[in-house]
Amino acid sequence: MAVVADIIALMDQWAPRSIAEEWDNPGLQVGSPAWPVKKIMIALDATPAVVMDACQQNADLLITHHPFIFKALRNIDYSTPLGQMIEMAVNHHLSIFSAHTNLDWTAGGLNDAFSEIIGLKHVTALEALPDAEGESGLGRIGELETPVELAVLAQNIRSCLGIQSIRVAGPFDLRTKRVAVCTGSGSGLLKSFFASNAHVFVSGDLRYHDARDAELYNRGLIDVGHFASEHIVVGLIQRKLAEGLSSNGHEVAVAVSTKESEPFINI
Questions:
Q1: Which of 92, 91, 88, 72 is nearest to 80 (CA)?
Q2: To the nearest 10°, the Cα dihedral for 233, 84, 82, 92?
Q3: By the 8 A CB rule, do 204 and 186 touch?
Q4: 43 pLDDT more than 70
C-alpha cells in the first residue's frame, strides 16, 4: 500500500523542492510520511471548506499548490481558523502537502501548462534559475502562432480560461507575437519582461504602477487574476499523479476538490 512518503517522492521527482524560492514553504504541512494513502484530493488552497470536504470524503492526503503554513507557528490555537483546519486534518488522519514555487518553475509545471492553454509555442524560461538543471526557470516566454492585437489576445485568453473579466493595460492595437507569462503574482518579473523581446506580459495581481510602466515601454499587460492563472494546477497535478501512480503500481484514487472558487466577485 502506498504511504504519504511515496506520493511526496513522486511530486519531488517532478517538482524538486530544491528549486523553490527561499521565502516559500513547500512540502508536508500536516500529517505523517508513514500514513497510508488510498485516496488523494487536489486543490489550489487548503481552505476550511476544502479540508472539511477532504475529511468527509475520506481522503488520506490533500495536495495543494499554496501552502497554508508560510511562517513558523508560535502556537496552534484550535479556536483560530488555521488551528481548526489542523485539528480537523489530524483527527481524520489527513496529511496535507503543498508544491508551490517549485511547481511554478519546474519544466512541465504550472507555467508551462498555462503557456500551452493560451496557445504559446517555442516556450522557454523568462528568467533562468542559475542552479537549476534542464528547462526550469521563472515565468515563461513564447510565441503565438499568428500575431494578434492586444485586445484580441486578451479576449482569446479570457475564452481559454473560461473567465468573465480580465484587466488590460497598454495600446489595444499593439501587434503581439511574443508573450511572457507568470502564473500567480507576476510583478516581480516585470523587469525581466521589459528586458525581453516580449510584447505582452500575462499574469495576476498586477498593480497600478505596473500598468504605468507598461505604458512607458509601449508594452501590454494582461491581468487574468491570481485564481484563474493558477487553478489549472489541480488538473495538472491530477494527470501527473495518475501517470506516476500507475507506473509505480500504486492503486490510489485521485479526486479534485469542488469546494473552491474565485474569492473576488465582480458586481
A1: 88
A2: -40
A3: yes
A4: yes
**Structure confidence at residue 131 (pLDDT):** 65
pLDDT in tens, 6-30: 999 999 999 999 999 999 999 999 9
Average pLDDT estimate for 90-106: 97
Size of the chain in residues: 267
This prediction has a pTM of 0.95
What residues have CB less than 8 Å from 27, skipping those under 6 apart? 8, 17, 67, 97, 98
Closest among 220, 231, 225 to 258, alpha carbons compared: 231
The C-alpha cell at 265 is: 466577485
Q: Which grid coordinates belong to 153?
A: 489576445
Cα(222)–Cα(202) distance, integer angstroms? 5
Question: Cell numbers 488538473 label which residue?
Answer: 235
Q: Of 193, 223, 224, which is closest to residue 208 (Cα–Cα)?
A: 223
pLDDT at 119 over 80: yes
Radius of gyration of the chain from its Cα atoms, rounded to whole angstroms: 19
**DSSP letter (8 states) at residue 36:** B
Helix (H) or strand (E) holding 126: strand 120-128
